[in-house]
Every structure is written in structure tokens, then in C-alpha cells.
Amino acid sequence: MTEKLKLPWERVGSEYKATKKKVGMLLDLDRCVGCHSCSVSCKTEHEVPLGAFRMRVRYLERPDKPTIAFAPMMCMHCEDAPCLDACGNNAIARMDDGRVIIRENKCDLDRDCVKACPYGAIFINEEKEVAEKCDFCVHRTEVGLEPACADSCPSQAIQFGDLADPNDPISLKIKAKGAKPWKESAGTKPSVFYIGHEEWMEEKVNTGVQIDPKDEDITYEQNNLKNL
Amino acid sequence: MHISSRRSFLKVGATALASGLLPSLFAPSANAAKIDIARLVKGKIDYTVAKATPTICFGCTNHCGVIGWVQDGRVRKIEGNPLDPNSQGNYCSKAQGMISYTYYPERLLYPLKRVGARGAGKWKRVSWDEALDEVASKLRPLREQGIPEEFVFHYGRDKTKGYTKRFTNAFGTPHRLNRRSICSSNRRAPLMSYYGRDFEWETQDFENTKYVVNFGANPMEAYQGGLYMMHRLRESQNTKGTKMVTFEVRPSATASVSEEYHPVMPGTDGAVAFAMIHVILRENLHDEKFWNRWANYSLVELRKLVKDYTPAWAEKHSGVPAKDIERIAIDFAQAAPACTTMSNRGSAKHYNGVQSDRAIRMLDVLVGNVGKPGGFCLSSGSGWSGKYGQEGLPKLTQPGPKPKGPKPWGIGEGFNEVAFKKLPQKIQDRVNNFPDKWKNKYFGELATPSEYPLAWHWYQMRVGQLVYPYIRDGLQKVSVYMSFTLGAAYGYPEAKVARDVLMDEKLIPYHVAIDIGYGEQAALADLILPEATSLERWDHHSTNCYGLIPYTGVRQPLVKAAGESKSVQEILRDLAKKVGGGMEKYFDIDDIEEFYKEWYKNLPISWEEFKRRGIWQDATRPKDYELYERPLTAEELEGTVVKDGLIKKDTSKGIKTVGIMMDGKPVRGFPTPTRRIQVYDEVWPEAAKAVGLSMDDVNASPIAIYDTVPEHKDLADDRYIFSTFKWNVHTQGRSAHWKYNSEIIHTNPVFMHPSTGAKLNLKEGDSVRLSVFRPKGATYRSGEKGIVGSFENHVRFLKGMHEKVMMCSHHVGHTEHGVVARAETEKSAPAVGIETDESAFPSDKLLKKGVWWSKKKGGIGGGVHINDALPINPCPLTGGQNWYDNVCKIEKI
Q: What is the DSSP secondary structure assignment for residue B839, as one 8-state letter?
């Protein structure tokens, strides 16, 4: 008798496994529709307190057309990670697959990492009293699932893959489409790449359309938690 | 979750991992420190122990198949069910909203009885027995006295697929009211007029289309079926060179991802569509064979009709350059049949919106893309009762015994004369003069308002926004009013009218609200019955499939209902038993799961297997292309006669038309009276005549025509059009308390073009007062002087806005729905007597201190309520709310 064919979600825990040697992500702005599925999925997955984001979608008014561009922003998991160097406590570390993670138990809240990050990707979780950021969902990838944001994207704009494998779909696409990191000039060698990225976007990322002009918005800098 | 082949999952065979133990417990790190992964993932969802159960999302109107992950008795995460042929494993931010509302600290958990004045916000907890005894004691006399119609059931969103109707039918009232007119009746009516009752929603073949012309639909943010369209369109655009052109008034997400976006003057989509028809006919790019075969109108006449609808004329009305209309028309026709139109509220929610949509629909017929691969397809979806296109599927119907519906109101045998004679003489006269087909469908002014016969000609769409004015005007006496997940007090146009009526104990002597949250509607109740959320209850699910093969799914409970909340099925069952008097025999449903099991008994897979998969589809069926060309089978032809080219059958329900002779062969045709596409339909002038609407009114024409929205004619320079929209993270008025969604959008500034701002001497962030005037045309309180209402808000510039348009999003500006929706701080207590469950958000202790956008914390607050300023404005004949016609003025303050 053959075993009943398992449904995709029934294979979790037994049939999927982490295999990637160098993890990376490809964000395709030509596909993004700005739906915020990634950021809300991320916040639900990690139960991120209100007032901070591990991932966030920015709405940017196009200079050339009367429309809006959408740009998901997150930790870039840099090869030369300024946060890792800034942390005096050895709380920030790099895993074998290249991702940069924060060990909460070692964090002493000195905020050096927050200041060092050119992408504003790190925030202080005041509830837990630690610095926090995207970890490419270690708890999901360890069991062979994709990071929450990639799984949640309904327009296939977010792909997680193996940068060490030249035949991985994201490696092929990065090459074919000439995908580039955000703010390449920061020189931190991100593991996150963008298709459809244009230079003007980097300037505008702090003043996106969905930011109400009168709102005390939690900005790119993620520093407003002092109010809470 | 997506199917593994589409993503980069690696299947590694059946190497079972010890439950809870992660594979690489210690990995060496680059900076020479050991990384303790177990510590790293502490407190996160452990997917090796969490239980995954498929169900159906209720975050918006799409109802995607999803998987819920439950750990330690809580739903921790929602993902997509890859077996769902519509969503294909995709989902959006609103799916997670179900977790937010299920574990909302101020969720309703116990039956509550009002202890202060109505609306004063003072409650005491009562038992279910006490609560239902009270409702039953109010309901029972109505049946005993033969006035069951004085019980009014009014819902906001009901996806029980007939269960609530079981209750109202068993009780004997025709008053199961909805909010369809608020939403979509102006776009459903044109479709049903063209294609028949079974096709109130179209199903474009976006997987194969090459060219899309979109008139004001917003599938990338908030459209029924939007998510299903979104992932197909984005795939086609990115891999097949599909081009999408969008006419809109603001740079919506849909406009922004379209290859072309044209800001269009509100209410002029029909003009653009007509100019496209003009160009296609002039260039002879139409599909003459298809038109002559299936349309019920002559091309010669059509050419005459559109002679003056030139691109230059359309440019004058719409602002869309004539040369662009020319090009789009030609590109659209040349892509046929792999091209399609789409439209929604942007085109339809106007005084002339019904005719605009009929003009848009005509484009598809003209180029012959109807039912073709890549074209404008039709796939019947709601209910599995062997409807058009569902032949051969197992029948799925609600288990019996099902009560009969009430009698229609009128004079004669088989009519409810008593209720009818209580109506004002004027209305009785009007109904008495109706043709028989309408007399048999008339159930009083709330269910079937006689002034709007096309709100109930096809089926009962009703005119929700007139329910409260009609009650106030004495057109229906109400003794018990039951609202079910309804937000009229917040979200209806002129919501103040709804609140005033709900506050008036003479008009509404008793109001019982069934809901999951303490919204503005529940706040005005006398008794609140707490409902289980969509993560805690059962529902049948079927809808039209954008893969064009019918499917069905089941919503099933993932966790036990919180507190003492109960599913609406249990609440109405228990209530029916208490009311008694024969009602109880329809509710002998001990086990709700057994009831649903019975519902699906004809599926070819077992109940357990269906629950395991959450979805069933016979994927081997051919796609629903060109259903109208299918020859009738011998079985279908049995006992038929051919009359005037139509194939008719004598059934137990009278003579039915089942097909049409085409080239001497019997084929199915369309489910319309003529079995053709009714480009021309006498029902419009017939209805106009019956209610005394002028034959010159745009809505009275049997063929689509264009006329400017009455109040937009001679629009003064200092007057603007005020319009509203939905953001992608919100749904209707029911999401402002979803914490993660509202964190992204919690305000609604007035969007306008920078040049409009400059003209008004405004800077970004300036505060303004926006006031809306009454509409003109044949509608409610038409032409009255003075303003409907005003609100104050601040300004946000956006250069993609149409220069004549002011726009705010709705969803926000709540006065109830707890700390998140009200943007409050710890100091604001919930309504007295409502227990809050602070353990509901264990991860989010900060929520106890309120939200960061609270005004008391220096934030902007929770937005501005705009619905009091928007006029009740039903479209003639259909009653669809004309949301987007509002003429407004704006003053700096």
C-alpha cells in the first residue's frame, strides 16, 4: 500500500530542510503592488510590537509619471555589516549561510547597531528590551519554509534563494535583470537585491506617499519608540 | 504557503525530525561565536509542532483558501492554501487581520444587556439563556399575531450561504436586508441585464489576456476577486507582455502598476467607452460575426447611436486625450479575443453608472472576446445548484428541511394582503400597476422598494441606504431589529440618519446586535450577542473561479470560540428553538459540523478528506470557455419545443427557455430571456415607466447612452468632486481595529492635486473644511439647498490626482471598536461592562498603553469620519448608492 500523498503543509517538519549555503533575497519592484502583505505577515509571524517594523513597504511618488512606486525595505544582511562591527557586545553575529542575526540575550541596548545601520533596519523592542531586526525567519528556514515575507507576497515580488548557487532562480534572475542592492553606495555588500530599483527612490524613501504629512510617523530611522 | 515546485523548497524524503527539535542546533558563526539556534527561535512558531488546518479567509470579500497554524491553542499565523484554484496559495495582509480581530482585547466575549440609556455605553453581562429568552419573548408575539414582518434582520456581511435566510423564512419575515446597494448593485445590474441572473459578476481570463482596459476597478487593493486577479495580472504583465490601461481619479495601486494610467473626470467612463466603440466601428475592427450571432441589437443602429460619441467629444467630457482614446481602442480591438474590459465602482457608482457599465460591457461584445481564452469570461460561482456552467457537478445544498419563504405582498390569493394594506395608498397603487413578474416579487418597501424595481428584478439586492429613512418615514413598522455584523451606524451614507433612527426607541423598540466587536452599530443595541470569528466557525464556500473551473471550499473552526461567543449558526438555532411555534423544526441541528458534512455529502471525496484539503475541484473539467455555444444534450432537449427560435421546456416551475437555435442547431446560449446578449433591454424603460421616471433620464434607456451626471453639468470653478477609496490593508468599515493593518493606515487626509492646492492657496498639511452638497437628478432629497454635512481634515498633495477631485479613504475615524480603532491611550476605558481580555495579545503589552498614533501621545489620531457628510444618493431604478458624484466645496481653516 502506498502512503497517502502528503499535502504541502503536511510535509513541514519531515520533508523540508534548510539547504541554502548563502541566503539572499530578490525584491522585484516591477511586480510589487504595495499591498503590505509582507510587512503585516512579518509582524504577525514575529509578533512585532506596534511602533516598529522588521520589514516595511514604502510608497514613492514617481518623478516621471503621475503614479506610485512601491519598495519593500528590510535588513539587507550585508556582507560588510556595519551593525555587526558596531556592536561592542558580540550580540550581532553572522550565521554560516551568511545571514546577520541579533542574539537577544547578549544585547545590552546600547543602540550602536541602530545608529550604524545605513538602512534603518534595526529597532529597539522596548517590550523585550533588545535590539531587533529581520533574521530571514530563522525558525522558518530551519524547517525548510521560506521567510514569512516571501511566502506572503501575492504578486511574486519577493523571492528567497541561494546566492551561492548560480542556478538558483534568484541568482539567475539577478544576473538576467541586472538586479542591484539598495543604496549600493553605502558599500556594505547587501545580500538583498532589487529589480526595478531607480536611484531617485533612495532619496524619497523617508517621505513616502502613505506617510501622512501630519503624522508622527515611525520613519526609516525607527526611533520614535521613545514616545511609547 | 505556495506549492513547493513553484518555490525553492527542497524535498528530502521522509527523514522525520524529532518534533520540536530543529535540524542544525548549533552552527558555527563567522565571528567565532557559537549561535544557539534553539535560543534564537525561542518563542517563535514551531512549525514542526504547530497544527496546520485549511479554512477560508474572511479578511475581505475574496474568501481565499488559507491555512491556519495553531500552536498552544492559539492561531498564530495565516498562510495561503495552494490547493485553492483562485488564490493558488496567495494571500494578503487582511488574512492576518483575522488573528487581530480574534484576539482583540476588546472583543465581545459575553452576551451583554444594556443597563443605561440606549447609546450610553453601559452594559451588564448576562447568560445566553437570559439573552435568548429576552429576544424570543420579543419575537414570539410577532408570529402569534401574524405580523412576522415586524422583525427586521439586517446584515453587513453574511457568508452563511442561506442559513440566515433559513431563520428569516422560518420566522416568516421577508426582511433579511443587506448592503448590496452600498457596494455593487450598479455594476451587477448591467451584467445581469446583459448576461442573465447567473452572471452578476464576470470572470476575465487574466491568465491568457494580452490587453486590459480598466474603468475604475482596483484589483490590486480592494476588489471582490481582486487577489485572484492580482497575481494572474502581474504574472501576465511580467511574463507575457500583457498591457493594462487604467482610467481612475487617483494613482491607486492598480493605476500605478498599469502600463498606462489616465486620470478621468468622475462619472465620464461611459464617454470614454463610447468613443472607443466609435473608433472600433469606424476602423471596422469589430467582430461582426460574433455581434450578429449573439447581440440582440443591430450594428446599423449601433453605428447611428455612437456617431457623435467621437474621441474629441469624449476628451471634452473626460479629459482623456482623444489621441489616446483612439490608440487604446485600436490596440484593444487588435488584441481580441485575448483582451478584456474590467470595471467596478469607479465607473458604476454614479448617476449614469449603470449606462457607463453597459457601454463598457458593449466593448467586449463588439470585439467578440466574450467567453474566449484571454477574454471577458463568465463562470457562475455562487451556490452549487446546477446553475449555468455547473452541470455535471455534484449538487451541494443546505440540508433540509428548509422553510418556505413568505408570501409576496399584494392583493389576491397567495399574497399577504394584511401587510400590503398597511402601506401608503400611493405605494399600493404603484405596486398594483406593476406587471405580474414584479407583483410576485414584491415584499414591502424595505426588502423590495417599489421605487427601485431593478434592485429586485433579478434578485433581491435591495436599497440598504434607504432602510433607515423608510423606517423613519413610517413605511415599515419595526418591532424587533436584529443587526448582524453590520456597520451602518458608521459606514452608511449620511450615517447620522442611521444613528438617529437606531437611537429612537419609538422607531426601533428593540435592537439586538450580533457581532464580534463593539462597533458603532452594537453600541446602539439593547442586547449584544457575541459571535465567533471566522477562525472559530463553519461556512460553506463557493465563488466564481478565475481559473474558469468551478470549485468549492469549506470554512472550518481552527480553535474553540473565545469566551462565550457562538457562531451565528448556533445563535440562530438556539433562538429558533426558544421562539418555537414550529420554527424549531428547521433547526434540529445538534452538531453544526454534522450539518456541514450533510451539506457536502455529494462530493466525491470523504468529509475527512475534504476537511483535510479545505478545497475540492474537478480539475479535469474543461474550462468555462464559450459555454453559450455548447450544444444541448439529448437529455436537455427531451420534452422541449422550439418557438421563435427559442427552445422551451415545460417544467414544474412553468415554461423555461433552455436554449436557442443557431444555424439550425440547438445550443445553450446565454441565460437571458432572449438567450442572447441583451445589449438592448426593455427592462430599463419598463421600470422607468412603472415608477414615473422621465423617459429622458439616462437610466431609462433600453440601450446604453451617455449623459453627464446631473450635478456635474455646469460645475462651478470653485466646486470639486469628493470621492472616497479603500486602502489595501483595510476592508470596508470593519478593519480599523486590526492593529497591524491600522498601524499602516490610520488616517485619511484629503488627497488633491498640487495645482488644485495652489489654486486654493493651500499648503500640504493645511487644515480644511470640506462640505458636500445634495445631488440633483431623480434621487433622495435631490436638489435641496444647503449642505449634507462637513468635516475637517488636513491636505495631502499627490500629483497623480485628477485636478477636479478631492479624495479621502474611508475605514477610519471610528468612535467605537476599541483602543486601536479609536487611537486611544490607556486612559480611555472601554464601554462600561465590557470585559477586556488583556491576555489576548500576550506579545503586545504595549497595546495596553494605547497606540503610538494616539493624539494624546502627540500622534495624528485615528482619522476623520466622513460618512455623515456623504448624501444618501440611490441611483434611479437600481438603487445603487452613487458614492462618487458628490459636489463639494473646500475652505481653509
A: G
User: pLDDT tens across B360-369, in order?
Assistant: 999 999 999 9
Per-residue pLDDT, B828: 59
| Cross-strand partners of B54 | B67
How far is the C-alpha of B761 from the C-alpha of B769, rounded, in Å? 14
Rounded CA-CA distance A62/A198 in Å is 10
DSSP code of residue B323: H
The answer, for B739 touching chain A at a CB cutoff of 8 Å, is yes
Residue B117 has pLDDT above 60, yes or no: yes
Q: What is the pLDDT of residues B137-166, one digit of tens each?
A: 999 999 999 999 999 999 998 889 999 999
C-beta atoms of A66 and B261 within 8 A: yes
What are the structural domain ranges in chain A? Answer: 14-77+135-210
Q: Do B230 and A33 touch (CB under 8 A)?
A: yes
Cα of A58 to nearest chain B Cα, Å: 10
Give the predicted TM-score (pTM) of the model: 0.95
Q: What is the 3-state secondary structure (H, E, C) of B784-825?
A: CCCEEEEEEEEEEECCCCCCCEEEEECCCCCCCCHHHHCCCE
* Interchain proximity A36–B13, CB inside 8 Å: no
Q: What is the pLDDT of residue B25?
A: 36
Structural domains of chain B in order of their starting residue, each with its CATH number:
198-367 (3.40.228.10), 631-667 (no CATH), 710-892 (2.40.40.20)
Mean pLDDT for B48-62 is 96
Rounded to whole angstroms, how far apart are CA atoms B395 and B55?
21
**Chain A residue closest to B844 (CA)?**
A49
CB contact (8 A) between residue A13 and residue B47: yes
Q: What is the pLDDT of residue B859?
A: 82
A with B: how many residue pairs have Cβ under 8 Å apart? 277
Residue to substitute from B766, B767, B799, B852, interface A, most A β-carbons within 10 A: B852
Whether B536 and B507 have beta carbons less than 8 Å apart is answered as no
Give the confidence band of B851 by pLDDT, cuts at 50, 70, 90: confident
Among chain B residues, CA nearest to A165: B8
Domain A14-77+135-210: assigned CATH number: 3.30.70.20
> What dihedral do alpha carbons B464, B467, B469, B473 form, nearest 10°?
150
